[in-house]
Amino acid sequence: GQNIDQPTEMTATEGAIVQINCTYQTSGFNGLFWYQQHAGEAPTFLSYNVLDGLEEKGRFSSFLSRSKGYSYLLLKELQMKDSASYLCAVSDSNYQLIWGAGTKLIIKP
Amino acid sequence: DAMVIQNPRYQVTQFGKPVTLSCSQTLNHNVMYWYQQKSSQAPKLLFHYYDKDFNNEADTPDNFQSRRPNTSFCFLDIRSPGLGDAAMYLCATSRGTETYNEQFFGPGTRLTVL
Fold this sequence. Notes:
Number of helices of chain B: 0
Oligomer: heterodimer
Strand content of chain B: over 45%
Number of helices of chain A: 0
Shape of chain B: globular
C-alpha cells in the first residue's frame, strides 16, 4: 500500500528553527509537495522537490532523498503565524497526490 | 486574481437532506478535485475530473456524486448526508500536466449535519 508518515504534533519556540520530517512509501514517485494549512482553512503550497537535495525559499527550506524515501521541511526564525499544520504529499506513478495526515506545529513565545 | 472559489463556506443540513456544494475556478485548469477532510486527518480524495472525464475513487461512497457542467464549475452532491459526513470539503484544481501537478485549493466548505 501507499503510506506517508509524519509526526502528529511538534512544539517550538518563536525565533527558533524546527525540522518536520516525512517518510513515504508510494507506487512510483513524481515529486513531493509541502503544504501549510492553518486551522479551518485550505492548504496552501509551500514547496516542491523532485530531485534530491535542498530547495530554499526564504525562511523555509525543503529537502528530499529519493533513495531513502525521506523529506523534511525546515522552518527558520519561527514566527507565531507559522503555527499551522504542515502536510506532506507525494505525487505517485499516476500523478495523484498521496497525502500525509499533517504535522501540527505549535509555536510558543 | 485567478482563484478557486467555494460556496458556501459553511453549510448546515439535516440528516438525510440532500446538499450541494459548489466550486468554481478562474485558473482555466483541466483538472478539478473534491476532497473530504476531517479534523487532524489527511485530505481524502473523493473524485476528480480531467476535463470531462470523471474519475471516482474506489472507496468513495455512492452517497457522493459530482457534476462538472463546464471547465469552470464543479459540484459535489451528497444525496443523503449522515452524521459521519460532517467534514471540511475542499475543492482543488491543477493544470493536469504530467510533469508538475501542484494543486490549488479553494477555501473549503465546512459541512455540519444535524
